[in-house]
Amino acid sequence: MMLASRISLIKPSPTLAITAKANAMKAEGRDVIGFGAGEPDFDTPDNIKQAAIKAIQDGFTKYTPVGGTDELKDAIIEKFKTDNGLTYNRGEIVVSCGAKHSLYNLAQILFEEGDEVLIVSPYWVSYPDIVTLTGGTPVILTTKEEDGFKLRPDQLQAAINKKTKAIIFNSPSNPSGTMYTAEELKALCEIILKTGILVISDDIYEKIIYGDVPFFALPSICPEIKSQAVIVNGVSKAYAMTGWRIGYAAGPGEIIAAVSKIQSQNTSNPTSIAQKASVEAIRGDQSKVGEMVATFKERRDYIVRALNNIPDMSCLNPDGAFYVFPDFSRYYGRVYNGKEIKNSSDMSDFLLDEVNVAVVPGGEFGHDKNIRLSYATSMKNIEEGVRRIADALTRLK
Ligand SMILES: *Cc1c(COP(=O)(O)O)cnc(C)c1O
Question: In this structure, is the dihedral angle defined by the CA atoms of residues 71, 72, 76 and 77, taken in order, positive or negative?
Fold first, then answer.
């Protein structure tokens, strides 16, 4: 079969691939502990499920407007007002089949050959591929662990040239869990404003934060940036709704209309039933979110401490999301059964083969020294998994 060359430019999502491999090993009866998951391990709250059941029973099962129902757009508009102090109208909101779909469509309508798109590394695995598929060029800005994996303003300034179209920004970050403070955002905003580039801000982990420092959306910090900013968010992570596939984008009307237009020629509307469920998620009782975040926080506190207790290991304390991104590189160069562990991929294979622990190699996120572990799994699994990792590492010579 002759496939279009475009498909050879990208790779399958590695996080989804690792989860699938771990699940296949489990199905064969192997006692696998999975730290690969990019989704909450909690069930979708019951009030949300009930809203979906009601939607089915009420016959709300037909096409809706391509960019989402007015009801859901209004709920999203209220969310921006209360949570972020931002005002949008319906023409500035589009609902997609997940935040990934919003990002994909945004890239399709904004980027083309000759455009450079800045991506902060460590980055979410999909950003470079989503840009590459448009013909645009991803430009990776590598941050340092000693800077808390945060982009420095001088680094941003130095990367911008005539070809730079946009920056894709993600705070709290997947994989590092880093969240920028208001001060840090302001400094980056000034450069974005001055240079006139666009910013696509992926705020999907907005509600999963642990410290006393509040979350700020970029345009809440510097209102003048609003005409250059698109915020992407969704219900997947905050409400344990990954399978429902509802995400959204908010930004200038011209951009949002173009996303709606391209959506009208691919998916049409997101699922009607999931839209009803999302209205309940956004407008309904929020107490489950707090409970989930409290549980994530306990696990984070434990896993960071446990990993830092392993010799030659260092792990930053993440501010948000549900991942840790420890540095395993002091174990590279060591040998097991005659085979040298050279990089994050060898290390991940070693952990899976030796002690049945599934992790995601940091190389997939642009940082080969590190490994991503998701703590969206039970405390029991976390305790046993970290114990196994510590044990496996002692076998390396
Ligand atoms: C999970 C995730 C998404 C995608 O969320 P969906 O709404 O399920 O498509 C987007 N960005 C980041 C950084 C994520 O981790």
Answer: negative
Written as six digits, the tokens of 123 are 């980055």
Amino acid identity, position 4: A
Asked if 209 and 178 count as a contact pair (C-beta separation under 8 A), the reply is: no
How many structural domains is the chain composed of? 2
Q: Examine the domain organization and report whether 169 and 302 are in the same domain.
A: no
Mark whether 279 and 292 lie in a shared domain.
no
How do residues 259-300 score in pLDDT, each as one tens digit? 999 999 999 999 999 999 999 999 999 999 999 999 999 999
Task: Report the SS3 class of residue 135.
Answer: coil
Q: Residues 210, 279: one domain?
A: yes
Q: How does residue 258 score in pLDDT terms, banded at 50, 70 and 90?
A: very high
Domain coverage including residue 19: 5-43+288-394
Atom of ligand 1 nearest to the CA of 242: 8
Please tell me the pTM assigned to this model.
0.96
Q: 36-67: per-residue pLDDT in tens? A: 988 999 999 999 999 999 999 999 999 999 99
Provide the percentage of residues in the chain whose pLDDT is more than 90: 92
Would you say 357 and 21 are in contact if contact means Cβ atoms under 8 Å apart? Answer: no
**Does 311 lie in the same domain as 219?**
no
Same domain, 234 and 89: yes
Sheet holding 164-170, edge to edge: 93-96, 247-250, 229-234, 198-202, 164-170, 116-121, 137-142
Q: Is 148 in the pocket of ligand 1 (CB under 6 A)?
A: no
Task: Indicate whether residue 124 lines ligand 1 (CB < 6 A).
Answer: yes
At residue 12, the pLDDT reads 79
What angle, rounded to 10 degrees, do the helices at 287-308 and 379-394 form? Answer: 20
Cα 353 vs. chain centroid, distance in angstroms?
Answer: 27
- What b/e sequence results for 276-287 when a residue is b if at least 16 CB atoms lie within 10 Å of its CB, and e otherwise? bbbbbbbbbeee
* Residues contacting 236, CB < 8 A, separation 6+: 39, 98, 99, 204, 242, 244, 245, 246, 247
Could you tell me if the CB of 13 is within 6 A of ligand 1? no
CA atoms within 13 A on the CB side of 14: 22
One-character DSSP codes across 144-168: -GGGTT---HHHHHHH--TTEEEEE
Distance 123 CA to ligand 1 centre (A): 12
Ligand 1 contact, 375 CB (< 6 A): no
Domain presence at residue 50: no
